[in-house]
Amino acid sequence: MSQWQETxxxxxxxxxxxxxxxxxxxxxxxxxxxxxxxxxxLGPDDExxxxxxRFSVKLRESNGHALNLPGATPTGHGLGRAGWVxxxxxxxxxxxxxxCDWVEESYRIVAPKRLVAELDTSRPx
Length: 125
Prior knowledge:
Elements: H1 3-16, E1 21-24, E2 30-34, E3 37-43, E4 54-58, H2 63-67, E5 73-74, E6 84-88, H3 96-110, H4 113-122
Antiparallel strand pairs: 1-2, 2-3, 3-4, 4-6, 5-6
Helix pairs in contact: 1-3
């Protein structure tokens, strides 16, 4: 398994561990949702000729930081205007810890307040 695949799998597992999160496959690509709303796009499981490994998250606080990474762009289809950023998975950008931080930020924006509160109470102090 390549480094980007390991990072993608760690991000996927982290996202699925958040309260109420579940995986779905619209358009044949992996997304993680909460309350029927997507909070992370993970793309197809395998790299293809048409697709580079990448993920997309909705960010408010970290939007500028994410967009400064090599290859990062506002997400297409008008999502970039709403704060969505698409970041390529590569062997060193971003690392899994940073990617998971962004997934949590996206989750907190999209999830119902009761699930965010559940997340906050489940974390060790």
